[in-house]
Design goal:
By secondary structure, the chain is of the alpha+beta class. The protein has helices at 12-56, 67-78; strands at 91-95, 99-109, 120-130. The mean pLDDT is 89.
């Protein structure tokens, strides 16, 4: 006996795509947000490191600028590519006898609230360095 040829299933692929497209779009946007957050954390780490170099005395600031202000300026300059840019009030500099600590805090707006319920994620990076020896001591 000859088996009947199955009828062509026109539109099956289009229907499957229509069902999966919202999920695929959400996964794409979530991956995009993750990549953006990763980029910002790397920029914040570089900003905190730049600030710590000036706060520890390893990098020399202009004579008219104090160590703390020079550290904030350096951190903000390294974080200038962020949108919105890093501001001096988001940089905390702590100097004690042997170490200099620079903490950078930043609220990053997300495309979707998938990774954070408020639509923003609070990122903080901290770098601590030993202070450089003072010449002549």
């Amino acid at each position: 006996m000859i088996q009947p040829v199955p009828a062509p299933r026109r539109g099956t692929a289009a229907t499957e795509l229509a069902l999966l497209l919202p999920f695929l779009g959400l996964m794409f946007v979530a991956a995009l947000d993750f990549a953006r957050v990763f980029h910002v954390t790397q920029t914040l780490e570089a900003s905190a490191h730049a600030g710590a170099l000036f706060a520890s005395g390893t990098a020399q600031a202009p004579a008219a600028t104090g160590q703390e202000q020079a550290a904030k300026n350096a951190a903000c300059a390294a974080g200038a590519s962020l949108v919105p840019a890093l501001q001096p009030d988001q940089v905390t500099v702590t100097l004690d006898g042997t170490t200099a600590t620079v903490a950078v805090a930043y609220d990053f707006p997300l495309l979707t609230p998938v990774l954070g319920s408020s639509g923003q994620v609070h990122l903080t990076r901290t770098v601590t360095m030993f202070t450089a020896p003072v010449p002549g001591n």
